[in-house]
Every structure is written in structure tokens, then in C-alpha cells.
Design a protein that fits this description.
The complex is a heterodimer of chains A (524) and B (102).
Chain A (H helix, E strand, L loop, with lengths): L2 H23 L3 H6 L6 H12 L2 H14 L1 H28 L4 H5 L5 H35 L3 H49 L4 H9 L21 H4 L3 H15 L4 H4 L8 H32 L17 H50 L9 H24 L5 H25 L5 H21 L6 H4 L8 H17 L5 H16 L10
Helix pairs in contact in A: 1-8, 1-14, 3-8, 3-13, 4-5, 4-13, 4-14, 5-11, 5-13, 5-20, 7-8, 7-14, 7-15, 7-16, 7-17, 8-13, 8-14, 8-15, 11-16, 11-19, 14-15, 16-17, 16-19, 17-19
Chain B lengths: L8 H6 L1 H34 L1 H4 L2 E3 L2 E2 H34 L5
Helix pairs in contact in B: 2-4
Classes of the chains: A mainly alpha (524), B mainly alpha (102).
Chain lengths: 524, 102
């Protein structure tokens, strides 16, 4: 066995042990879906960070900064700033007025069946797309790092994720995410330290070599500090700058509509803890993404180009960070960073499966099919576990069908765009706009969902490729987000006022802003 | 909150203390949101349409574009710090509004 394989096994063993203990504590829906609402602020902060910093961001952004310089760093900025939206607008009202899912807040004062059905559909779509992206990335990376072939690697990740979610529920998922966040920060700190050591701990020397990045002397020097290498007019044509703005808009507004991030705020005892957990998450996420400066740019100054390009001469974006680790820290550090990448993938897919299955069981099964009336005790939990299994199986099958060559950045972009265009407008209007009604919610959710998906299919990444694209931008946010907001607004003002929804606005406002009657912690 | 004595939500919502709390919240959250969105979106707009300005060097090889991007991290952290300070005051006001309803 290689060192990397031993480290993988150690991580898997530890997380299975956690799942075993979590399974014993899983008695009832609140324990299973929301970890008994007993997670503390710093723990949930780490878990949010662990749920959020995906393999795409660790491996993908390192590679993008290494090859596209400054423009890749723009992703790092957006991923942190997005949390201000979460902190200021979404986290506390959601915790105060909801129970298990994003739809709890949306359906609070509107007609529950249509709103929950659509919100659940949107949750399933966002989570499945995001998960396929992670699975495809995972399969490719594991194939390279520990020598397991693509299909068995994807199946292995899927089975492990299902064990965490089905047996350990939210509690096990939370601890897998916490451990992963700590490992990822440790790996990023060590990698940044080694890069700075290479440059004699001099920022002047570091930035000088970034401005003349020559891939260890193997390529023409290129100034990676300059913006525009990916989205500039020279590189991307006249639509490039607008595409960058559209990307940024999707990032900054999409995070607050990602169901797997939102459900994390139900795991803490109250809104105040939800607030402090966002702050913890912002500290950790910010620290991590600032460090992408060192290992992203650093790779371009240290690694020879042959090391980080494929046999066909194309940039090997996802392998930059592990190869840099091996180059600077030897085989043990390479193994460690590989194990961190593996832990990263598992923690994110577990969080996605958890939110998808909770939404189907709680929103669709209990509230749409059974009208919210009490069904057989424990039925919701059984449905959630079966859904987790189905979502996992479908994602594994699609990931294997698409194969390692599919563009994962495109899938992640689509998930953010749907979250920003369909979910966020309806969340904001239902909390802050009294007149908002069911037709508005249905219009906003459907128009946001459809416009984001259709625009992506017509984009250069979509059905017709770069040459036949009907929509010129790769990122649909700048068009689909306004469509989501306008549809929700028009759907409301063009239809009759809903006295019931407006009457319940008082209740929702008081609950959301004072925490009166909020779900309490159940286990200690 | 007990099941026997249902809360009169409308009455609570009409309380001057609650209305004052909501006014204070809006007076902070709306300008803060507008500010951070403008500050953040200024980055891709300037980088995309005024690249020559953003390429100007301020310290060694470090240019305005990088300094502005880095400043976004500190903007986010400072915003979070201010929000937590302000929200702690709201918590007290909220506790007074629902006093006697637990």
C-alpha cells in the first residue's frame, strides 16, 4: 500500500467511527435532520466551511490561479464576500422561522403545497447538479492519486457518503465536515508556508516572481498579477468582462440560496448561534481563500510546465495543488494533500445528499403528499434514508455515464446560478415583503429555475458548443437573477392579494426577528 | 411558548418596541447591503472595463487590481464584525419585545 492509501484508510476509519457513535444518538427527526440543534457556533462555522470549500474550489482554484493568474483569484474573492449576504439577510430569519429545510421559510405564510413542491424540486436539482460535479471531479482525482479506476472510485465515494448520511444523519455529516475543514486549513497553511520558504519568506521576491511567472524556467515569462488573462477582451472577446461580472453576481447571490449551506443553520440552538457560526465560517473561509494566493500563484513560479500539463499538452488544472505539495514537501505531504482532497469531496457530497433527502422527505413526502398531517411515526425518516440512497445512486450513475472529461466548473456554475435565480428572490420576498403571495413564489421559483437552465444550455458551455452558442455568456446570472426577481414581483402584483398570507406576515416577521417560538434544541 | 396560550402575533407586531426594532434593523441592513454589493461589483467592473487603470503598480509588482481584490476580504471581515456588534443590541431589544411570552 502507498502512503496516500494508508492516509485515506485512516480518514475513512475515523469517519466511520464517528458515524457509528452518531447513529446511536439518532433518535427522531430533529436528531437526524438537524443534529438535535445542539451544534455550537464554532463547530457549525467549521462545518459550514467544510460543507462549502469543495474539491472544485481547493483543486480547481489552485489550478485556475496557476494558469490564469489574477482572474482565477476572482473566484476566491467571491466565495468569501457571498457570506455577507448569508449573514445580513438569510441566516437568522431562516433559523428562527424554519425547521428542517429551506422550504419551511418559503412556505410559512404561503400555500404550502405548490411552494414546497417547487422549492423541493429546486433543492433536488441544485444538489444533484452540484453532486455530479463533485463526483466527476472525485473519480478523476482518486484515479490519479491512489490508482483506483474512475468507475470504482465514484462508486466508493458514493457508498461511503451514503453510510455517513443514512446511518449517521446530520450529526455524522457535521463532524465529517468539521474534520475535513481542519485538515484542509492545515494542508493549506503548510503548503503556503513551503511556497513562502521557497521564496525566502520575502513577499517582494514572491510577487516579483509571480509577475514574471515562467513555470520553473520552462516557459515564456508571463505576468500573472495582471487581470484579464481569462476574462479580458483580448483573451475572451468582447463579452469577457460582462461574463466576469455575471460570474461574480452568481457567486455573491448564489451562496445564500444553496440548500445544503442553508440547512446547516438548523443544527444550532438559536439565531444568535447561527450568526456566530457565519462569522466563524467567514474567518475560516477567508483565511483559506487568501492562501490560494500562495499556492495558486506559487505553483506557477515553482513547478515546471511539463509537470502540470497532460500528455496532450493541456493544463492539468485539478492536479496543480497535489503536485506542488509533492514537489515541495515530498511523498508524505503529497499523500496528505491527496487525503485532504478526498476528505473534501466526501464532506461536500455528504452535505448535499443530506439536504436533498431532507427536502424530499420533509417537503415533498410529509407536506405535499400528506398535507402536513401526521403520518406514521418515523415515516419521514425512512423516506429520507431511501431518498438519500436514490439521490446517491442517480448521481453515481450520471457521473459514471458522463465520465471524467465533463467540464465540472460548468456544473458548479449552473448550481450557483439556479440557487441565486430561483431560491434567493423568493427567500427575500417572503421575509421582507408583506404583499408577496403564492403566485409570486411559484412564478419566481419556476422562472429562475428555467431561465438559469435554458441559458446555460444555450451558452458556449452548453448544447451547441463555443461556435453555435445562442447566449454569449458562460455565466447566466446577470440575466437569470433579474428574471427570478422580476417574475416573483410580477407574479405577485398581477394576481389578487392574499389576505391569509398578509395576515400571517405579522407572525412570520415577529418569529423571524425575535426568535419567539423557534424550534428548540432537543438533545444535549 | 406553551400550546395553551396562543401568542397574539398581530399585537406583538404592532408594539411600538417591535416597530422600532424593525426600523433600526432596516436602517442598518439596507445601506450595508447596498454598500457591499457596490464595493464588490466594482471589482469585476473595474477589472473588466478599465484594465489599464487596475494594472498600475502600487508596491513593487503588486498592482491596484490585487490590492482591491485583497481589500474585499477585509471589507467582508469588517462588515461581519460591525454587524455582530450592532446585532447584539438588537438581541436585547428583541428580548424586551417578547418579554413574558416564553
Amino acid at each position: 500500500m502507498t502512503i496516500a492509501q494508508i492516509m485515506f484508510m485512516a480518514f475513512v476509519g475515523l469517519t466511520l467511527l464517528i458515524t457509528f457513535y452518531a447513529a446511536k444518538k439518532n433518535t427522531g427527526a430533529s436528531a437526524y435532520f438537524a443534529a438535535g440543534r445542539s451544534i455550537t457556533g464554532w463547530q457549525n462555522g467549521l462545518a459550514v466551511a467544510g460543507d462549502y470549500m469543495s474539491a472544485a474550489s481547493f483543486l480547481g482554484i489552485s489550478g485556475m490561479i496557476c494558469f490564469s493568474g489574477y482572474d482565477g483569484f476572482m473566484y476566491s474573492v467571491g466565495f468569501l464576500v457571498a457570506y455577507i449576504t448569508v449573514l445580513l439577510i438569510v441566516a437568522e430569519p431562516l433559523r428562527n422561522a424554519g425547521k428542517y429545510t429551506m422550504a419551511d421559510l418559503l412556505a410559512y405564510r404561503l400555500k404550502p403545497r405548490p411552494v414546497r413542491a417547487l422549492a423541493s424540486l429546486s433543492t433536488l436539482i441544485v444538489s444533484t447538479i452540484y453532486m455530479i460535479a463533485q463526483m466527476v471531479g472525485a473519480g478523476g482525482i482518486i484515479e490519479r492519486l491512489i490508482g483506483i479506476e474512475f468507475a470504482p472510485a465514484v462508486i466508493g465515494v458514493g457508498v461511503l457518503m451514503l453510510v455517513y448520511v443514512v446511518f449517521g444523519g446530520m450529526l455524522a455529516t457535521t463532524w465529517v465536515q468539521i474534520i475535513k475543514a481542519l485538515l484542509l486549513i492545515a494542508g493549506a497553511l503548510l503548503l503556503s508556508f513551503l511556497v513562502l520558504k521557497f521564496h525566502h519568506f520575502s513577499f517582494t521576491e514572491f510577487f516579483n516572481s509571480v509577475s514574471k511567472a515562467d513555470y520553473g524556467g520552462s516557459a515564456e515569462p508571463k505576468n500573472l498579477m495582471q487581470p484579464g488573462l481569462k476574462y479580458g477582451v483580448a483573451a475572451a472577446g468582447p463579452w469577457g468582462p460582462l461574463d466576469l461580472i455575471s460570474l461574480c453576481l452568481g457567486l455573491v447571490l448564489g451562496t445564500a440560496g444553496l440548500p445544503h449551506i442553508l440547512v446547516r443553520f438548523y443544527t444550532v440552538p438559536d439565531a444568535k448561534t447561527a450568526r456566530s457560526s457565519v462569522v466563524w465560517a467567514m474567518a475560516i473561509i477567508g483565511l483559506f481563500y487568501i492562501m490560494t494566493t500562495f499556492f495558486g500563484f506559487g505553483a506557477a513560479t515553482i513547478l515546471k510546465k511539463e509537470l502540470i500539463t497532460t500528455a496532450a499538452g493541456k493544463p492539468d488544472i485539478n492536479m496543480v495543488a497535489p503536485i506542488l505539495a509533492g514537489h515541495l514537501g515530498g511523498p508524505y505531504f503529497f499523500a496528505f494533500i491527496s487525503a485532504v482532497a478526498f476528505a473534501t469531496i466526501l464532506a461536500v457530497v455528504a452535505g448535499l445528499t443530506m439536504s436533498a433527502s431532507a427536502s424530499f422527505a420533509h417537503d415533498f413526502f410529509s407536506n405535499v403528499i400528506h398535507h402536513g398531517k401526521a403520518n406514521r411515526p418515523g415515516a419521514e425518516l425512512i423516506v429520507a434514508r431511501v431518498t438519500a440512497f436514490c439521490v446517491g445512486a442517480v448521481s453515481i450513475a450520471i457521473a459514471i455515464y458522463l465520465g471524467p472529461s465533463v467540464n465540472t466548473a460548468f456544473l458548479v456554475g449552473l448550481a450557483f446560478a439556479v440557487a441565486a435565480s430561483a431560491n434567493l428572490p423568493v427567500i427575500i420576498f417572503s421575509v421582507f415583503w408583506k404583499r408577496f403571495n403564492t403566485s409570486g413564489a411559484v412564478a419566481g421559483l419556476s422562472a429562475g429555475l428555467i431561465s438559469a437552465i435554458v441559458l446555460i444550455l444555450l451558452s458556449p458551455n452548453g448544447l451547441f458548443g463555443k461556435t453555435g452558442a445562442i447566449f454569449p455568456l458562460e455565466n447566466p446570472g446577470i440575466v437569470s437573477i433579474p428574471i427570478g426577481f422580476i417574475a416573483a414581483w410580477l407574479g405577485t402584483i398581477l394576481t389578487a392579494r392574499d389576505p391569509e398570507a398578509e395576515a400571517k406576515f405579522a407572525e412570520l416577521t415577529v418569529r423571524a426577528h425575535t426568535g419567539l417560538g423557534a424550534e428548540k434544541a432537543t438533545s444535549h | 411558548m406553551s400550546e395553551k396560550t396562543p401568542v397574539n402575533w398581530e399585537k406583538l407586531e404592532e408594539k411600538p418596541e417591535f416597530r422600532a426594532l424593525m426600523a433600526r434593523k432596516k436602517a442598518f441592513i439596507i445601506p450595508a447591503t447596498i454598500f457591499f454589493l457596490i464595493y464588490y461589483l466594482a471589482l469585476p467592473i473595474l477589472v473588466g472595463y478599465w484594465p489599464d487603470l487596475m494594472k498600475q503598480k502600487v508596491w513593487g509588482e503588486v498592482n491596484i487590481a490585487y490590492v482591491f481584490a485583497l481589500s474585499q476580504f477585509f471589507m467582508a471581515w469588517i462588515m461581519a464584525f460591525i454587524y455582530v456588534r450592532v446585532a447584539a443590541k438588537w438581541d436585547k431589544a428583541a428580548a424586551e419585545v417578547i418579554h413574558g411570552h416564553h
